[in-house]
Amino acid sequence: MRILYIFNSLNFSGAELMYVQASETLKTRGYTLFALITAEDDGNYRQQFEAHGFDIAKIPCKPSISKRIVFYSKLKRLIKDKQIDIVHVQRSDLFFVAACAAKACHAKCVYSVNNTFTSHWYSYAWHFIKRLLARRILNCKFHCGSDTVYQHEASYYHNKGIVSYWWYDEKDYYPATAEERDAARKELSIDNNSFVITTAGSCGYQKHHEDIFEALSIIKNDIPNLLFLHLGTGALENKEREMCENLGLTSNVRFCGNQKDFRKYLIVSDLYVMTSRFEGLSNATIDALACKIPAVLYNVTGLRDYNISGENTELIDEDPLLLANSIKRLYEDHSRRQQLAESGYNLVTHKYGSKYCIDNLINTFYK
Fold this sequence. Notes:
Strand content: 15-25%
Shape: globular
Radius of gyration: 21 Å
CATH superfamily of the largest domain: Glycogen Phosphorylase B
Mean pLDDT: 94
CATH class of the largest domain: Alpha Beta
Strand order of the largest sheet: 3-2-1-4-5-6-7
């Protein structure tokens, strides 16, 4: 069986990391892997895809009707030339075109719904109809990587998806010993008596980092040696740096950029926070919980998933004052942090382990 994955660009982020991790299992089971880049920019993760046996193609596609027609024609040719059996779409605005091309070439189509997408009032009907036609006429299957994405698709678009959870790599993310944690802190020049908070995500509207900075400004005098590690880059990074300076947080915040050794930054942490306005499913949060780092999360789609089956994280409303109070309370309550760390770890190891989730993806969508 030959699978073509359709991406925007190939970047060091959630879906790309998971498919690279799954590649060995897929190849062992007889699947041949292809990846299609549809952006002008290849992204920063193309070499890793090639190193893991993906055959890379590129057909840039911009959002216009004429460009979509050209893309459809080129995609059909690619599917036929490479004798593709399964087209698995990751780019949301191309799933319908890809489903049409797959149907015309007698290939299966899967679309991974990676977030809780909404529509403008004037375009809702079109997005609803696309899903209906793709599912009923084009036989496209909708893959939902989290419970809340599934619930959103069902309630908002009346679209019947199938849940198959995203996963994390147990070889890369696991709890640290005290000695390993101390060594990592020394390597990163972090005092052992520092209270370290970490988040990971691009500097953009969705991640809502300004709430973290406001919360830190409220509690910085109450928590000695408070340190915030900010992993990620993006369009709003300069504004975030300026905000930290204006709030007097320069000595409390480190902008660490994108880091391949994410676990090193997690295991030095006392607390993980995420203040996104919405998520599909936060892979970085799964990684943090897998390292037994207690987490404070905003109560939004894709983050509340971690508390669906119990209290595995501290879930709060979207408010910087509530965030500040929650951080301060957990700083003072070590036993509560331990409780959250244990329950969060138990959740991800049982629900998001790679072997089970990759097997489920294969059995549900690729057979």
